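User: For a benchmark we're assembling, each entry needs the component sequences followed by a predicted structure for the full assembly. Here are entry 17's components. Please fill in the structure.
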Amino acid sequence: MKLQKNKIMRNLTSIREEVPKKWYLFGVIITFLLFFLIWGGFSFIHIVDEVFLPTPNAVVLSLADSFGNPEFWGHIGISVYRVFMGFLLACVIGIPLGIMAGTFKFAESFILPMSEFIRYMPAAAFIPLIMVWAGIGETAKILVIFIGCFFQLILMVADDTNRVSKDLLYASYTLGANRMQVIFKVIIPALLPKLMTTLRLIMGWAWTYLVVAELVAANNGLGYFIMKAQRFLDTESIFVGIIVIGLLGLIIDRAFAIANKKLFPWVEGGN
Amino acid sequence: MVNIVQPKIVLDPVDIEIDISGLSKIYHTKNSTFQALEDVSLYVKNEEFVSILGPSGCGKSTILRILAGLEEATSGSVKVSGEEVHGPSVKRGMVFQSYTLFPWLTVRENIEFGLKLKGISPKERKNISDKYLELVGLERFSNSYGKELSGGMKQRVGIARSLANNPEVLLMDEPFGALDAQTKQSMQQLLLDIWKKEKTTIVFITHDIDESIFLSQRIYVMDARPGKIKEEINADLNLFRNGELVEVERFMKLKKHIIKLLKH
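Assistant: Structure for entry 17:
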């Protein structure tokens, strides 16, 4: 009995080896339970005032309430719209530029140093400028997300492109490929799985910038919803807003992960 | 003492597939220059199997890469079938030490890659890939991806992929260097069988003395820093005749000679 226990411990603490699925699930459930337990503990026993920290069940009720409210769905809808528009715009322009920078050294000289420079300017700091330029309409919010994602995306795509094995390119040259064919038949297909992972990361950034944009200047959307709740000291709704953004992020992230697996079954070691 | 080093035979120029003369390669780095190759001259006859043997860093791979057109020579002339080499060409297939399968393509699609670029019809492509799948014994894996294959199998696909293009010369850059001893041996045998069947001219880079003697008809032994040809050795022995190991003595003599050469 003791021996078996030891063996289980040894297995659970082996470095970077698989553990049984049920033990993994156990870990996941325990952390979530613990999270709610601590949260509940603080709020139910009133260690922290309810105004600052609502009880978990109040938040769950408020969440259910919000989901029954069409206005809340409107907030979700407009936020998702902004995220996707900003993200897509960044992708449409950023991905080709990134691939160019990662493929041609000369193109790199135009694209990378500038992107490196702008990347360090916080996108949130552009908001006042964007409001001057583009007002406070949809364009402004989409622009904030775009600026936040675009330069980062270029750099990451360029890096992904650069990592495509040179031997793969040499091999295709000796098989008769010209430069165009090397780009479209070798570099891009080889790049795709990494690109998907990069997009997944950038999507996370897009959500961050969305909230930044909506907190500053909006009259709808999830960021605005949170902002409004703060004004009325409605902490429950703040929690609801944050949780919903988290859930949306999680759903999108999972979608990316599943797409990655389905689209690129050939990737070594899975995705 | 058996005369191992044979006098240079005067060749009919038509017979010469590869003709390298006075080849030098100098690399310039920020604050130094490095002479990788110095005045290398060698030839390879049509349908011949030649090895270039030398320690790591002797520039043997550089010769091959220049032959493939992947690098430019600093000076000297490199001719393949009478034409000066400028840039890569389908006429010169190459198998690399690292696995260069396109991982997003199946084994069959890998083999058909060059054919597709040439615009050969799907039906014709299938005929050709069928032939080479059989030649390297991978019929059962035609629809597998690279990640499902062992190292030896990956190199077999690499060989098939190059040969499917019907090159005049097959350049092999330590293709079995990363394989385990057993796989290496079976790959060497496979390569010899393929060579006998396909009659392709092969230039084979290796640092493995046994491998070079076993595979090739002639060996160029190289010296490092700067890389140059030390000696040309005739190694055309038939180790296996009717399944029997023969000429073992000559093999040993050649090996001893090469070991001595590499020491100095």
